[in-house]
Every structure is written in structure tokens, then in C-alpha cells.
Amino acid sequence: MPESTHYGILAEFKSPETLVEAAKRARARGYRELDAFTPFPVHELDDVLRLRDRRVLWFGLIGGAVGFAIALAMQMFTNFDYPINVGGRPLYPFSAFAVVAFELTVLFGALFPAVGMLAINGLPRLNYPVFAASRFHLASKDRFFLCIKAHDPRFDPSQTRRFMQTLGAESVELVPA
Amino acid sequence: MKRQNSQTFDAAEARRLLARGGGRRFWASLEELIDQDGFRGWLEAEFPSAAAVLTEPGRREILKLMGASFLLAGLGGCGETRSDLALPYVDQPEEIVPGMPRFYATAVPLDGCVQPVLATIHAGRPTKLDGNPEHPVTRGASDPFTQAAVLQLYDPDRSQAPLRDGLPATWSAFQDELIAMRRDWAARQGEGLRILSGDITSPTLIRQLRQLLSEFPSAKLHLFEPIGSALRPEAARLAFGREMDFHYRLENCDALVSLGDDALGPGPRQVLHARGWSQRRGESTPGQGRVTMHVAESVPSLTGTVASTRLICDASQLAVLAQALAAELGVAAAPAESLGESEHRWMTSAATDLREHRGRSLLAIGAHLPPPIQALAPLVNDRLGNSGATVWYGEPVRFSPSGASSLADLVRDISAGAVDTLIVLDSNPAYAAPGELAFSDVLPRVRERIHLGLYRDETAHLCRWHLPLAHPLESWGDGRAVDGSACIIQPLLAPLYGGRTAPQFLAMLLGAVDPPAEDAVRETWANAFGGDFDVRWRRSLHDGFVADSALQPIAVTPRPVDIPPRPPRGSDHVDVVFAPDPSVWDGRFANVAWLQELPKPLTKLTWDNVIAVSAKMAEQMQLANGDMIEVAVGDRRVAGAAWIMPGQARNTVALSLGYGRSAAGKIADGLGYSAYSVRSNSDGWLAVGSLRRVGGRQPLATTQMHHRTDGFDFVREVSADHPSLPQETHPQPNLYPPWPYPREAWGMAIDLDLCIGCNACISACTAENNIAVVGKEQVAMGREMQWLRVDRYHTGDIDDPRFYFQPVPCMHCEKAPCEMGCPVHATVHSPDGINQMVYNRCIGTRTCSSYCPYKVRRFNWFDYRAPADSPTHAAHNPDVTVRSRGVMEKCTYCTQRIQAARVAADKDGRDIREGEVVTACQQACPTTAIVFGNLNDPESAVAKRRRSGRHFVLLEELGTRPRTTYLARWNDAPKKDSS
Amino acid sequence: MSLTAEESEHILPPGQSLGDVTDQLARIPLHFPTRRRWLIALALSSLLLLLFFVAVTVLFTRGVGVWGLDIPVNWAFAIHNYVWWLGIGHAGTLISALLLLMGRDWRNSLNRFAETMTLFAVVCAGVYPILHLGRPWFVYWMFPYPATMQVWPQFRSPLEWDIWAVLTYLTVSVIFWYIGLVPDLAAARDRARRPGWQTFFGVLSLGWRGSAIHWMRWQQAYRLIAALAVPLVVSVHSEVSLLFAASQIPGWHSTIFPPYFVLGAAFSGFAVVSMIAIAIRSLFHLQNLVTDDHLDILGKVLLATGLMTAYGYVFEVFDAFYSGGVHEVQTVSDRFFGAYAWSYWGAVVFNFIFLQALWWRGVRRTPWALFLIASSVAIGMWLERYMILVTSLYRDFLVSSWGSYTPSFWDWATYLGTLGLFMVPFLLVIRVFPVISIFETKEVLHDERKEASRA
Fold first, then answer.
1. Which of B42, B392, B427, C347 is at a distance of 20 to 30 A from B637, taking alpha carbons?
2. What is the ipTM of this complex?
3. Interface of A with C in 12-51 (CB under 8 A)
């Protein structure tokens, strides 16, 4: 069967609760390649769908460190490269360097996770198979979608579809790849 | 010079002249061409827009414009031309080394006398004048007038060409007419020929005038100097039966009693007196005898501000006081009037001091007091054996021939129709004549009126002929300094505006045609020097003065004088006193912007003169500064802005001369009021008048709005009881390690006890550092640019305050707050500890000024530079950057001078010697109040001052570690008066 | 309702469906409701903006002397308005970042336009340091680049710190604002019918699809940036206060300044937020989302920050007398009785007197009353900044250098101009973007519904 022609099957639910419930049962059925689309973050899903990814936080940490390093290096180098008596202050007054160091720490600490988050989310990507689904536009309004992807080993267009309907979905739709 | 007779002007000829370098020569030829019809056609072809301007009176304008634009080209030629006859002050290089200044000794006139100066020449342009260090009068010091003379040289408002009936003419045209005139004079023995001149000390002019008067025996010379030596000549005649000059030797003076004699005030003698006084004052240390000064005056003067005891009494009362003092010392009858209690106390203590310091004391009576009163001084000084020690008498320096008569005589003769031709020599009676004479009304009655002057001034406007006088710095001439020594005036550059010198002009009157400028002067001294002319002439040019030409004291004994009774003054009247303006003198410097913007010592006012009234008077009349009031003397009135002068006598009103000009130039016209208009001919110094308020206010631009010290200790004092200040024993704690200053550590120490607030330092700084002039409005906004300011404070009662002067340059803090604030390294510290300002790096955040506790920084809010075509650029010191818009600037300790010394020292592989670097302010200061040097050298003058017990640091508590520090003032006011 | 917001679980009136909210908010850009009033506002703001450009042209052609500045008062309007604008900006960040971390749901109705306000307030502030330069065309010298003069910026200078702080603040604010905006842009994209809007939102929403894993990472990033933004705000205005505190000028040289400035900033900022909230909710009829409870809370926050700022005033005076420095005391007395006493007492009255009305709940919940008080605070803080600058500079240490300051016409023109510089882009943004965070509002509605059902 040509799985490659399908992206997966999309089931629409009225509330986050029903979606979470459905997701649980889907996992119980052994489905692993699950995804959900919601108008706002639904935290329960993270556990249900076993979502684990701390990279964004690491980006933040690294960004901060990089910013701090750059700031300190920049200020020390400029004073090393152009050493001159300024108001009788020492060449390397770290108390004075602290401010810029802090600012750059924050700057990079914010830039890295922001850009990184988009990168690992694969965004921007303007077209995506689910957008083809007829009712998917409701995913940004008040509907909650569960999707079993086609490359799930246990995926079978007809069976899976039937199973989804048993989850009390408003609608079930096969999404072409 | 050949004149073109062809009606059509040959443009090719003009271009050829243009092409042939030396723009000045072209300018010269342009003025020859101007009176030809051809010129107009050519002009229309070449400058159509200009031709439109070339109508009455615009014709003069176009000459100015063109003059200005041709000027720089003209200056190009100045370096070489003519100066081959002059000698460099130091070894002359093979040819001019670019960037290397040359120094010439010459002199600039002030009030008839001359001030010996040493001029700095860059590429043929005089950029700075300082006192001639070799000359006994100046010894290198100077005053604001001397400093500013160089700007007047480049003043574009100076007269640019001869004018006949107000239309551009030429010298040759004048000389053509002169031939006819001379024929006429000769025919009538000079009957009806009158020459009016200011005071003259020039041997050459005197010789020429004598010659002229002998050629035309019936001609007459009239002398008129608005200020000059005031009423001294009459006083001398009373005291000695002949004219004599009084000379003070303040350096020998332990006790000085002055009755309205502002010996330290502005004028030709200021430098001489100030140095003498400071020598005596500076050498004595606490405990030893000091020069005590008792000053009685009606209006605060510089002398009064440094006096031990200062008695304030109305101007008319000074005479009484003088007579009483003389009586106390047994040389005169007691006055009819009685003294007030405080007056009596002052008089007795003054008399005591005079007696106690017999032989080393001096009674000085102001030259503007009634002559019989002045004549008392020689008697007293003679009685006390001071003659020859603290005062001596000599032949008059000023030319006063028996035949000479006054301006009043001239007016009388004119009215009588006895004057046919009047020649005005560098004098401006139409403006400066006493209002009583109404000179400008009678002048037109003279048929032939010829005026020679620097500017087309009020008098020039009334004359048929106006002839441009060459500026002293572009002239050959001579004159005598106040000590009588003859100074040779040698030109530093060829005349910019085609002016001729006074000796040249007189030579023309004597029949010469286009006489070379130097001939008359050489002739004078050829006679004087006799045989070894060349040697002595060269020597004199080199030195700037004729050796051993100073006057010698003449032993004379004063005759007793009988003092006429004084008419009682009406109680509703006030004493009106006239005084020269400390910035523009009698008005001759009115168009010099540097002087206009120079804050007057006691009022800190700029760009204006005021009517100074006492605080009590102001209370009585509900006056505030700037309110318009009117002074009436007889039926003559003048209105001006009121100014409340602390420490002025209750019923005395002070008018300052020199303002209210109508034809001085773009700078000065319309500023202030003219005090001459209410001046009387009989006594031009003290009048009885009345005061009334007229409507309106006048905005005044002062650089210091607040003057009470308000309990702060910016200025400190020591006294006999507390001869020294608590000195900082342990160094202030500091978070950071100190920066090392291995070679020099420049520092400045200013002795407040020697500062007389004369402003020489400010004007010298202005000239040295290309300080911009910003104008009255900007000054009023608080945007003046002077790097050095002299703060003036008062303490005590407003009716009798103590005055303090405090020069405040940049402090050059070692822990400079300004540097820390600058985000772009535009102000940083040099290895020798100077707080530097890097103009081309400055972006104008003004953080440095915000952070500066002393507010010594100045900001270019606009582009304050003169227009690109302004000749005043030539006055700029090429070693100092001219600052543009949007950058901060401030005192640099004259870093260009330090660098020059550094280069010289490095060439010889040695350290910079003590005294090798002299800042402009220090150089100008006549009292050595300012000392600059290397703090690392314990033997340097500045290091010594730092060890003095009077040493203190301004705002020391801020821990900025200033390099500029102060010595406390010595308060020698007796206890009883200080209460 | 009888409960105030803190006590009640419900900040938003119950019974609103997620769908309605989505449509209500998403249609504001798509089918703009109050065209006329918006156009009038835009026209007026554009006039101010025009004035700004004229003033700046004059300033750049003639020089900074067109302002009323002098020595000693060589910092006045420019720096003073810079501090004022920056302070206003801070409230936006505090609301959206600080309250997010503290889990205060009610901020979800306010954060979007509060952040937008921040952006343009910071822009207005940001132009001043450039305008006030003597040679603005060299502003880039403040950045470290290998210059031919071989000289670098001077990192001991508070002004140098300032540049970095403000630029960091601007960048982080933009990121924070945009990251938070993306999901709503997606919502707008899905509501849009006209192709123009579809492409516009389609591109800007970066293809956001609300996938669970995306949401998780998004939240990590969003909260992380929020966590950084809070100390950033505090640092920025503390650092601005160092512009003054780092000098020795009496009235500036004080350790109280950093907290004093930060609190003042929050104070003025919350005032402006309240004004905008009231304006927007009446302009777009959003009473159901920006409820009286919101105004009530804003009123309380305003009162609280106001009292803290007042403490700063008290302490400043105490500081001066405690130090006993003759110049410090002089400055305080100048502030009380000097030539510019009006600015001090004006600040006291406008900041703290009218403010006291906020003790009454009724006042807090009356839009126009709150609006008036908020505006008085905005004025009061403006006077305070003026007072801090001018009354310190015009009389510093040496009596001889005491001066005065009068703002010139161009001072005023530039300042009023920046109002336009703020309003025009702000109006454009609320025209094309959802003024209130759609998904966060829905989150709140959903949570409240859950709690309601649990209760």
C-alpha cells in the first residue's frame, strides 16, 4: 500500500480533554507517530505524547555564555589595543565592564532560543500537508486535532480511520502527503 | 604712480595686474582705477551683480566686499614685502621656515603713549602680541588692549580707501588737491589752517608738526585726548609751575594711600604699576611687613578691590578728604567741610601709615580730581621724603607745545569763522568731544575738512576728505612709552587696506609726493643717532626701543597751593563721575569683538556700558539691573541701563565712556550710550547731575549672574591671626592605583592675593587659542566661549563688600570626571597629566561638561567661526585648531606651547627646563599671579607654591585631584574695619 | 460582580466561547470596525510626526544650539524626554514578562498592546541620544569598529553602556513581541478571506500550525525570554540612572537613583498602559475582554508603584540632609524654592496627590477617572524627569557658573514630534495586528471554565 501518498489521519475534537483522552487511547493502541494541533498549548499532551526536548533551554544557556564572553573580550581588547589614561581609572575596570557584559548576555541569551526554537520546529515553512485538510483552519480557532502519521508502523488507512472514529472525533480525515 | 587717462578701461591690463601675484598690489591699483569711468564699465562686465550695488552709498560696500575677497591673496604677499628692512627678534632663518613663527619687537599706541610689544608672526601674519620682555615698562606682560590690537589689524570694518565727499577716491587724487591747498596755505601763512590731534608722543610726528607750523606760522595745533592724562597737567602746573609727569614706584611702596587714584586700573600704566605692586606684595611673607593700601573712592576700582582698607565716599567728598589728610600731615589748611566719623577714622589711620612708613609710603591722588587737590600729593610726598623713592617727576611724555591749544579753542575759532581748513589726525572729536562743545554742529562750518583715521568714524562722516590710516602693526613710526623711552614701530606686514601712516600723511602735508613710510622715521632718528646711525638703528629695531631713552627724574620741590572753596552740592543732586571703559577704553577699541566680549572686571558685563548706581540709590528708586534711567547734567541728558554696583558711594553715579558709537563699525554701532554727550568741557570727570527713571528695560549680557559666595569656601583667606590654611596631610584614599607621571607633571598655581582681575589673561588666552566670539545674544544665553574666566565674588554688606577675583581655567583633574563620561575617548589624559580635548573625535554628547564640577568646558552650539572670507581668520594661531560646530572645547594649558618645548627639548636630548613652557595667561599676567610648571620638579615655582601654607584646592572634597590649585588671599584688613 | 479580580478566579466574564473570542479579535484587522475615529487619530498623529521631521531638519541644519541649552544646563529636554519615554516603555515588558512568569492570567488581555507600546516608546527614546549630539552624523563612533583613527569607544562611560542597553532592550522587546504574535498571526491567516490578507498573515505567521511539539518548544523559548526580559528592564533603567548618578553633580550623585528610576519608570509606564487599555477597549468595544476588573488591578498597580516612587522622593531628601553636604542641601532647597520649584511641586502634585483617589474601588473601576489620573501621572513623571535634570544642573558647585534654562520653540517641537513618532506606528500596528493576544485569551477562558467545572 502506498503509504507515501498519505501524510496521516486527522481527527477533530471539541475540547482539549477529549483530545488528551483520545491521544491516551491511541498510544494504548500502540500508535507511536502521533501529533496534535491545538489553538493554544495543552500541557497534558507533553506527557501523553512523550514529548521531550530541552534543546531550546540549552540554546538560551549557550547564548548567554557566548554574549557574556563576547562582551568581556570586546571591552578588554579595546582597552588593550588602545590603552590610555581615562580620568585616572585603571585600564580594566571590571565594575565598569559589568553593564555591557550583562546586556550582551541577555541579548544573545534571548536571540539564540528564539532563532533555535524556530529552527528545530522547521519554521518558517509556509506549506504543510495538514493545511490541506478541509477543517484544519479550525485548529487555530476552537478545535483540537489528533493526527496519526502515515509512517507509523501500525498505520493502515482504513483501520486507523475506523479506530479514530471510535475516539469520539467530530470528524476524521485522511490527509494526503 | 601712473594714472590712466584713456576713458575706456583696459580689462586686459587689470587681469595682467591680477595675474602678476601680490594681490595687495592689485588691490592698490584697483583703488587707483576706481575713480575712472572705465572702471564702472569693466565692473559691469565682470561683476554684474556687484555693479548693482555700486551706487551711493553702496559704493563703499562693494569695495569692502572686494577688499575682503582679495584679502587672503593680498596677505599672501605680506611675509616678504618690506620686512627686509626689519630685523627678526631672534636669529633670522635663511628664509621663512613654514610653521616656525618669527618674533618682531614693535609697539602699539594706547592713549597717546605706546605699549612696547613683541609680535608673533606666522607666515607673515601677526597672530599675537605680548609685552616686550626687554622693555622696563612691560617686561613681557600685557593688558587686554595690547592683546586685542592684533584683531583690530584685521578688522574688515577698517577704512579701506580714501573717500572724497563719501565717494571712493585715491591717495593720488588727494595729493593732487593737496598741491592746491599748500599753495593756498603758503599764500596766507597758514592762516585758518588748523590741525587737531590726540596726544602725541611720537618724536617723528612732533618733528614734522614743528616743521609744518614753522612753514605755516599762522597755522595752529589743537590737542584733544578724551582721557589722556586727565587733569594732571594743570595739577603739575600748580605744584611745580610747569608740566610734569608723576611716576609711581609701587615696588618701593610699603604704605599706599590712594584717593580715587586707580593705579592698578586699566590704562597705559597698568602693567607697570601692577608689576611694581605685585613685586612688593608678593615678596613679603606673613609676619613681615606688607604693603598696606588705604583706598578712598566713590566707585569700586581694581585698586580698591585689593586694598587693606577701602573707604567709600562720594566723588565730591574725595576732595574734602584729601584736604583733611593733607592738613593732618601739616601741608595744608583744614577743609571747611567736616568729615564723617568713618571718614575721619580712615583718614587718621591712613595718615598714621603714611608717617610710619615715611620714605616708603605714597599718597596718590586721582588724576581726575580737581588740580588744586591733586597738587597736595607732591607736597605730602615731599614732606614724607617719598619723592624719588616711591614717586618721581619727569618731563611730560606727551607733546605739549606752548602754542598748542584745546578743542574748546578750536570750537570757538570755528564759530568765529576763523578756521578755513581743519586736518584731524587720528582723532574722533565728532564722537568724543564733550557734549557741551557740540563739536559736530560747528564742524561743517569749516570749508575744507580732512580726516585721517583707522575707521570711517563719526568725524570722517562729517569731513570732505577721509583718508585711511595704516594700522600701527602695518606702519613705520615711533612713540614713547609711559616711562618716556622711545619705541620704534616697525611694520609687521604691508598695509592691508592701502592706508598710509601718520608720518607719511604729514610728509604729504609738507609737500612730499607718495613718501615711503619709513623715511620720516629714519630721518628723525638719523638726526638723533648721528654718526653710528646704522648700528643704533638696527639695535633699536631689534630691541623695539631706543636704549637709555627713558626719562630721568627731575628734582623739583612742590609749591604750596591754596585751595579754592568748593560750592556746596544740592542735596537732590548726585555726583556724576566719568571713567574710561575697561574693555573699549575711550571708544577707539569699540569695534574689536574680543574686547566687546571680554567680561568687564567688576560687573562681568559684555557688549554694553551701564549707568552704575549704588544699592541704596537703587532701593530708593526701585531700580533693578537693566532698568532704563536717565542722567541729566545741566540741560544735557543721556539714558542707559542701570546697574547696581555693590560698594559704590550712595550719591555717586558712574558713567563709562566709549559706547554709544554710531559709526564705529558693524560690531560696535548701537551698543550702549555715549557718556560724552553729557560731559562738560571745564571738568570732564566729575559733574553734578540728577537721576530719573525712564520707561523700559534693556537686556544685559553678563557672564556671571551670581556673585555672593553664599558661605562656600571657593575663595579662602589667611590673615595675621591665621597665617596658613589647614593643609591636607595624608593623601585622600582612592579605590584605584594612582597613574604614574614619570616625566613632567604639569600644574598651575594661581595666587589669589596677587590677582587684580585685569583680564589680561582672558584676552591673551583668546588670542592664543583662537577663541570664538559669539555675540551679545549668545553670551546672554550663557554660551560665551572664553576658556579662562575670572570669577568675581563679594562677601559682606552690599554697600561695602569685600571683592575677590578667582581665575578659573580647566583644573586638569588627575581623576577627571569628564573623561570617565565621554563615550568616544574624545577627552583623555596625556602622559604628562593634561586633560586633553580631542576636537576631531568629539561627537558632542556634552557629558564631560555635565560631569565637570567646575563647569570650565565650552561648547560650540553653532558654527561660531567667522565667515570664510573674513580677514579675521588671518589672526588665528596656526598651532591651534579652529573648532567647528558641535564639539566641546576648553583650556589646554596651551598644549601647543608644551609640545613646542617638548620638541626643542627632545632635539637636545634633555628634559624641559623650568620656565621653558609659559602659558598665554601666565605670560600676560602683570602680577605673576599665575605660575605654571612641572610638579615633579620640587624646585619649580609651581611646586614651591604648592608647599605654601596658603595653598588650597578648589572643591577638594570631590577628590578630583586638580592640577590647577590656588593660594589663599591675604586679608590684611584691620580688625576694626572688618567689623 | 461583587468580587474583585484577585479574589475571584474569573477575570473574564464566563460564557464566552473560544470561537467567538477568536472571531471577535481576528476580525478587528480583517474587518476594521471604527474606521473614522481611527483615521482622525492617525491624521492628528501624522501632523505631529510631520512636526518632528521639521524640528529635526532644523536641528541638523543649524545645530543643537537651536535648543535652549547652555553651560551649565547642557542637558535638558533631549535627555529628559529620553528618560521619560524609556520609562514608559518598561511597563509593557513588566506586564507581559513578569506577570507571565508569575502566572497572572489577567495580563493576557493586556500584554499585546502593552508590548506594542513598549516597542515604539523605546524607538522614541532611542532617537533622542542621536538628536542631542553636537555632531549626530558621527553617532556610529559609539560602536566598536576598526576606525581609521584607531580609537575605540570608551567603555567606562555610562553613555556607552546606554547604547548597548537600549539596543539590547529594543531587540529583545521585538523578539518577545513577535514570538508571542506568531500563533495569533496563524489564527488571523486562517480567518482571512481576501488573498491579500491571506498572504500577509500567511507569510508573517511563518506557517505556524500549532503542533503540540511546536507549542512545547515555543513555550520554553517564550518563558525563557520572559525570564531574561525582567532583569533586562531593571538593568536598563538602573543604567539610565547611572547617566546621572555616575557624576558628582549634587542631586544626581546618589545611590538611591537606580531603584528610584526603575520604579518611576514602571509607574509612568503603567499609567500609559492604563490609558491605552481604556482607549482601546472603548475604541474596539472590548469590554468583555478588558474588563473593569482589569482596570481595577491596573489602578492598584498604579497606586502601588506610585507610593514606591513617592518613597524615592522622601528618601532623596533624607539622603541630602543625612549626607550633610552643603551642595546637596543647596540643591534640595533649590528644588523646593528655586527658580524651577514649579517642576518639583508639579511632579509631587501630578504624581501623588490625584493618585490617592485610587484608594477608592469605585474610582479604579471608572474608566474616565482612571484615565484622568493616569494622564496626570504621565505628566507628573515628565515633570519629575525635567526636575531631576534641570534643577541639578542649573546650580551645581561653583556659584560663579550658576545659570538657567528655558526650553526653546524647537525643544518643544521636537518633544511633541516624538508623540507623533509614537502614535503613528502604534495606530498602524493595532490596525493590522490583533490588539489582544487571541490564543492566550482562549487559554484563560479554557482554564477558567475547567476551574468552574471543578468547583
1. B427
2. 0.89
3. 16, 35-42, 45-46, 49, 51
